[in-house]
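hey m, so remember when u said the tokens were messed up on ur end? i reran from scratch. heres the input so u can diff it against urs
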Amino acid sequence: MGLRFEGRPALRAMLVLPLVVLLTAARTSVAPLPETLAPAPGEHKPGETFTAKAGDVILKGKILDTEVVTLDAPISVSIAKFSQEIPAGTKLDPVLAPPKTERLTGTSGRYYCGEDQQARSKFMAAMIGDFGSKFETVVRFCFVDSDDDSKLDQVFLAGAKDAEFQKSLPIQPTAFRREYLQPDDERGEVTLTLHKFKPQSNRVQFMLKVYRNDTEQYYTYIATVKGDKMAQTYPRIESNPKKYPYPSTFTDILGASVSMLRVDAEKGEADLRINRPFRMQLFKPVSVTVTYVYVYY
């Protein structure tokens, strides 16, 4: 099964999306390929009017691995002080790389990486990070299919800061296989839930929730692409009848359209209609965190 998105420009733009958060320093950085959100059957069909109460799930979407890559043969690699034996059958992580990484490594094509390796002890990494090191605190062997023949033919060390270790090296061409739009191992799911009513203003509030293995995940916003620009969709979505009297419509909730035909916040119920489900698209939940740096005197 091949990738099917609404236009190749949107796909190309989404593939570039995570690169905006990469470090700009002269180091070989990579970023994970975004997952895919696909619509999933729910209790209500598009075009159907129904009455919903707080806690009801309005829409569902499933999270898919956009691309799954599996080695058909083992690989043995070594760069600087790092080495790794990767057996056949191992799944590699599809990643994206900014132009700077292509320049530093001297190669281009599709990139697939092995597991993380610690460049320093956890204690040292916690104390001073990668200060004074030729490597980031975590590095990975990343492999390149430079001619798109389903064989890996180059390797580089993602996380190398020193030019001596940034160039890619040739390896014996190693076959691998690709699968697209596969169910993820964590049974990922996205839901739009009617969260609560506000009787004083007759507002209704919805929540976009992300689940992994049935456990709700914290996120700040979901990054997608609209046209050729990044879009940010936040978890809390609320009507405003004073500005947009009912009936009114949310026209784009991750591509979905939901109409509020009647809202009675005092009774805690709303008549809704799904006009359009979630759109199949690449997406990336983003969590913004604050890191404190302590200075000791």
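this time it looks ok to me. The first helix runs from residue 8 to 16. if urs says something different then somethings off w ur setup not the seq
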